[in-house]
Amino acid sequence: MKQTTNAIVMIRPVAFRMNEQTAVNNYYQKVLDGLLPSTVNAKAQQEFDDFVEKLRAVGVDVTVIDDTLETDTPDSIFPNNWVSFHENGDVALYPMFAENRRQERREDILDTLEDKGFVISNIIDYTSAEEDGFFLEGTGSLLLDRANAKAYCALSPRADEELFIEFCEDFDYAPVIFEAFQTVDGERKLIYHTNVMMCLGETFAVICADCIDDKKERKMVLDNLKADKKEIILITEAQVNNFAGNMLEVKGTNDKKYIVMSASAHQSLTPKQIAQLEGHAEILSSSLDTIEACGGGSARCMMAEVFLPRS
């Protein structure tokens, strides 16, 4: 199984704003005072367009889909939470914590991919779990080491353990389960998505081990990464707050690898960390300040990787 792909889907926002329904447990979101909603959306669109341009310039195959005004979907810019695409032609659809995020799931997006020559052979739908109040938000909640058939998951209100295990059984992944925390107003609270504090590349892993408060769990996670010969690049909680955990490795022209992140993530890294990362792939960063502040997500969340076979 490949760990990285050249193809990604990105959703261009039309009514981006801070989603009040996700702010209850996404402590990275901020209210940008004094900005009109239209200004926030225009800034987000500019950041989005600049980001897509940079990805395409290095040969990443980006399918851009416009969000629709028919639904109130302020977080549609983060498609990796509701869908994942797999090498055997499977597509997984995930149950979402916020009610207004459930409308992000759109069949026409799958149709667009099929029109581009991608083959979808099977849809595995976990969304009925929403009715019972259980959630698993795609590759936000679960980090897939596709090459080593392992899935990492930091449990949270948006990552249910039983659902995660069901996913692992369906897709033949070995589950690696733990809890990750951040300090909010002096209290340790669960981090809402695993991909905020951790990133898995082909030959490296970026992780904030300090977020895993339980020493046994921390050792277990690090041991799993070491067993798969990944270079472990440790980041701090302060760097997590700058979205340094929210990176993604993709392929450009001639399968050249890039580690994609936001400008704030890039700026938060030390020279040593940058050198470690550059030992694996070239860094590509883009300013996502508005999207990060209002959305509480960053570069990785904006890219849904497409591993589907092509016809």
Automatic annotation (TrEMBL):
Alphabetized, the UniProt keywords read: Transferase
TM region(s), chain numbering: none
| GO MF | transferase activity
Pfam families per the UniProt record, alphabetical: DDAH_eukar
Entry's InterPro entries? Amdntrnsf_FN0238
The name of this protein is Amidinotransferase
From which source organism is this entry? Flavobacterium circumlabens
Lineage per the UniProt record: Bacteria, Pseudomonadati, Bacteroidota, Flavobacteriia, Flavobacteriales
